[in-house]
Write a structure and sequence with these properties.
Layout (H helix, E strand, L loop, with lengths): L8 E10 L2 E11 L4 E5 L6 H9 L6 E6 L2 E2 L10 E4 L11 H11 L4 H14 L15 H13 L5 E5 L7 H18 L2 E6 L2 H7 L2 E6 L2 E6 L1 H6 L4 H6 L4 E11 L2 E6 L2 E6 L10 E6 L4 E17 L3 E8 L2 E8 L33 E6 L3 E2 L6
Parallel strand pairs: 3-8, 3-9, 6-7, 7-8
Antiparallel strand pairs: 1-2, 1-4, 4-5, 9-10, 11-12, 11-14, 12-13, 14-19, 15-16, 15-18, 16-17
Helix pairs in contact: 2-3, 2-4, 3-4, 4-5
Length: about 375
């Protein structure tokens, strides 16, 4: 029987305090070989401190760091089989692109033809072939980002640690670099730990995501599971828009529950938790799961917002608020004539949101809801 491969990187009960304030509190996390793991959380939650301990830039007060199954807790940063890319890329202005990429190789004593070949291969990996003789200051922001990645990968580390590397880029370039980062990670077969407060970036690139809150990991899983079946209210609200309702389980059938809430009974999936009738629970509803125009619920429109490819409608029902997303067609789309007012349709189609105005009554249905584990209540 073969022995399971060791994780590329593992944090075991890591803790760190500053002046009596516990910044990281018992964090345990595994990154598999060739895995892209996102680590997200609000500012001050401890994610960057965790990354610095994994990199060897901070020593944990408690816990261990394992790299390839070997204890590296006391190994200095330069001797660990990891590299790090910071938000500030720190390219050396007095060196060419090739010299920047080769810096770590030169430090490690790799010389001559071997160094040139590895630099060329690294620049090829990040789609910058032939850029070796250029001045870094003459490159675009995205190209500078690629140079930093090439420099971090040229030593073939077991794990690449990335601390908000895309936050200074504009939206279009950030989206382009997300695609490139995932491609580079896949082709290099290097484990990536991507630390960010940008949920969208983490969701689009990561194989799994760890969510941090107040120094702890509160959930880990694939992006689609965290979004569609979050286990806690914090995760539900942090990873995208969500309305949450407290209520009491009225009936159970298989993996579904009917929960009596302030806005009425909601039918919800209850796949991740064991429930009993009468139990108090929290139900989460995403905006895209709300359809306007007909249904058992009614409320008052509080605001509408045009978001480009959709409109977001905020609805108040007996003091509880939730949002719905509908197509962004204007009220003259979908066959509505000049001067006519489009009305909400059952499927949230053309004109569903464009016709609604604050203060207007609207009926709606909830197509999907999920019962949370409530471990953070």
């Amino acid at each position: 029987m073969s022995t399971p491969a060791a994780a590329a990187l593992e944090a075991v009960d890591l803790s760190k305090a500053y002046g009596g304030v516990r910044a990281v509190d018992g964090v345990s996390l595994e990154i598999g070989a060739s895995e892209f793991l996102g680590l997200v959380g609000p500012s001050g939650c401890g994610k960057t401190t965790t990354l610095r301990m994994l990199a060897g830039l901070e020593r944990p007060d408690e816990g261990r760091v394992l790299i390839g199954g070997e204890d590296a807790t006391d190994t200095p940063a330069r001797s660990r089989d990891t590299n790090i890319v910071f938000q500030d890329l720190v390219l050396f202005p007095h060196m060419t692109v090739a010299e920047n990429v080769a810096y770590g190789l030169a430090r490690d004593g790799v010389d001559g033809a071997a160094r040139r070949t590895r630099v060329e291969d690294a620049l090829e990996l990040v789609s910058l072939p032939g850029f070796g003789d250029r001045d870094p200051s003459a490159l675009s922001g995205g190209q500078q980002q690629r140079v930093a990645l090439a420099r971090a990968l040229v030593n073939d580390p077991a794990v690449l640690l990335l601390d908000e590397p895309l936050s200074s880029l504009d939206r279009a370039l950030r989206e382009e670099m997300r695609t490139e980062l995932k491609r580079i990670q896949r082709e290099s077969e290097t484990a990536f730990l991507y630390v960010t407060h940008d949920q969208e970036s983490a969701m689009s690139m990561s194989d799994r995501i760890g969510v941090m809150c107040e120094g702890r990991i509160v959930d880990v899983g694939p992006p689609d599971r965290l979004y569609t079946r979050p286990r806690t209210r914090f995760v539900a609200e942090f990873l995208g828009d969500a309305a949450t309702f407290r209520g009491e389980v009225r009936s159970l059938e298989g993996n579904r529950a009917t929960v009596e809430t302030a806005i009425g009974p909601i039918d919800a999936a209850a796949e991740a938790t064991e429930l009993s009738v009468g139990q108090r629970v929290t139900v989460v509803v995403r905006p895209e799961a709300v359809s306007l125009g007909s249904g058992p619920f009614s409320g008052t429109v509080r605001e509408t917002a045009y978001k480009g490819f959709y409109r977001q409608v905020t609805i108040d029902t007996d003091g509880e608020r939730l949002s719905a997303r509908t197509g962004a067609e204007s009220e003259n789309d979908g066959g509505v004539g000049e001067g006519e007012q489009a009305r909400p349709t059952a499927d949230g189609g053309p004109g569903a949101a464009a016709a609604l105005t604050p203060g207007e009554s609207v009926r709606y249905r909830i197509d999907r809801a999920v019962v949370l584990d409530d471990v953070d209540e």
